[in-house]
Amino acid sequence: MTDIIMERKGTIDKYMGDCIMAFWNAPLDDENHPQNAGNSALAMFEHLPKLNERLKKEAEEENRDFHPVRIGIGINTGECVVGNMGSDKRFDYSVLGDPVNLAARLEGQSKNYGVDIVIGEETQKTMNDWATIELDLIAVKGKAEAVRIFALIGNEEYKMKPEFQRLYEANSKMLIAYRNKEWDEADKLIDETKKLAENVNIEIETLNILYKERIDEYRQNPPPEDWDGVFV
Predict the structure, then answer these.
(1) What is the pTM of this model?
(2) How large is the angle between the packed helices 183-196 and 162-179, nearest 10 degrees?
(3) Average pLDDT, the chain
(4) Considering only CA atoms, which of 39, 31, 36 is closest in space to residue 9?
(5) How far apart are CA 137 and CA 143, in angstroms?
(6) Which residues pair with 96 in a beta bridge?
């Protein structure tokens, strides 16, 4: 995974337990930093089955249980402070800033939404011609303003597939109905996305269950009149 990042102009910041933190556009300028980060993330998931196949073989040879490696990725874009941080006794070349904290929060959301790669709105704006679908409008811990989050599914070529286009349209309509409190219409569109996702490189079951549970809750306890669709 480290090689995949570095081959695409990424800088490894640190290893935190089972997590890799990396950034782009420093120390060397990289005008395509969001795309290189996105390509790295997609390449990681291409490599993952090969890694698990190797680990499975090793486990069988050593007669022990095999536990597949699963990963989630968060990507965010913004202005940060980069350099040698710390004290005069111990310092580290690293990156600080609100966009960094949000990237960590997005990674944590990948499991909640059941998708591989979660990206922030600023990243999505620079990769608008890539295959992404909107997931939600959420208020994450430590941030006052709501953020729009997306799932990265594929590159520019993938976005042109008719199967993806149909899923994108249905998902966009579902979110509009949901935010307009049109629960029956949103419910119907959720079922439609489930069928459409069968031909697309995304597992959407977790996302569908999440929205159906919210809709059931809002039917029982409607949100306020001035509700803006934000989930806290």
Answers:
(1) 0.94
(2) 160
(3) 95
(4) 36
(5) 13
(6) 81
